[in-house]
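Checklist before submission:
- one chain only
- standard amino acids only
- sequence pasted in full

Submission:
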Amino acid sequence: MRHTSPFRLTTLCIALACVTGVAHADETRWFKGNTHTHSLWSDGNDFPEMIATFYKREGYHFLVLSDHNILSRGEKWMAVRDVEKRRRTLGHSTLKKYLAAFGDEWVELRGEEGAQQVRLRTLEEIRPKFDEPGKFLFIEGEEITNNFRGRPVHTNAMNLGELIKPEKGTSLRATMRSCLVAAKEQEKRLGKLILAHLNHPNFGWGITAEDIAHVVEEQFFEVYNGHPGVRHLGDAKHPGVEKMWDIANTIRLASLGAEPPYGIASDDSHQYHGAGSLLSQPGRGWIMVRAASLSANNIVEAMRKGDFYSSSGITLEKLERNQSKGTLSFKIKAEANEQYTTRIIGTRRGEHSNPEKVGEVLATFTGTSVSYSLKDNELYFRAAITSDKAHPLPSFTGQKKAAWIQPVWAQPEKQEKAGQSP
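Returned file contents:
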């Protein structure tokens, strides 16, 4: 076991190969990824290497470590007793698991028995153990953790080059915008594509659908977050997150002349020891992105085009979403003894003021193949697919395996714009 002096600084310089290049549309492929993950660098309960081992083993192609207001950089030591306190299940200690997986030569400890500290390896240090061209990629990220008068405003930013510090605005919506503006400024200054998405809007009942709608700079939000405490289904006074998506879509298209946001599914994983519906475990939700290659810029570029879908257990064999033509067709990869129902959900023109008609079911399909075209009287539609099989790691009661396909909406020249609302 290698012990490191607290006075010794170790600098590790790693030359990384960058997967670049432009491919034609027929050369794209699907990449599976999670954009919301926590580790011991903030409030997760395992080491980044252990977490990455899970995701790579489970067939993920990219992973965003998104700890709260910190990047996995610099020298950071953690008391071993604090590491072990975060573990909520019996069995081998977190440190012993880490040692067994990566060995004495990798794990750095300092201090006397009973008062030991362990060094958290930086992202650049652990990249060479996991990154493989076309197979697996770390994308650097952060959960910009903010609030306005006690209401949580959490935004994930991926493909960062620098930390983004949270800044409060003069209102909730201004606070939401501040993260997006900071990400855009960094993107322009560093010349790399950065994607920011709003996290778990119902967490702490922090953000309403109307807030999402009016912050038109918000292009992405979590339609499914696997943390059991984010109130995905809403309650008697608050709509569920899927309904919030429809409200925001409708307001933007009917009143603001703005494009609807895209929906992301993520884990928001914090806990990696044991299993249970009350734990925020990995493997609950993810996105499938169709990109030219497995590079951070290509992943972000594809997501900005809406060339991805979100899933909590359903995989598509084929997906053709044509925004300019207003058409959608897809085929589900069928699992044995599993049945699928697809709801086409949207809002019709002239119905945006009627809450009962916002985000209504426009059509229902059973089976694995679905095609739908935007009708002249529809502002938008989206597809929500549900299996009859229970989710293997449910985050809420009665959860089924599902998938969500991005909205298709009327072209600007067909919209009845009412202008930007205050």
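Reviewer check: The chain has two domains: 24-74+122-414, 75-121.
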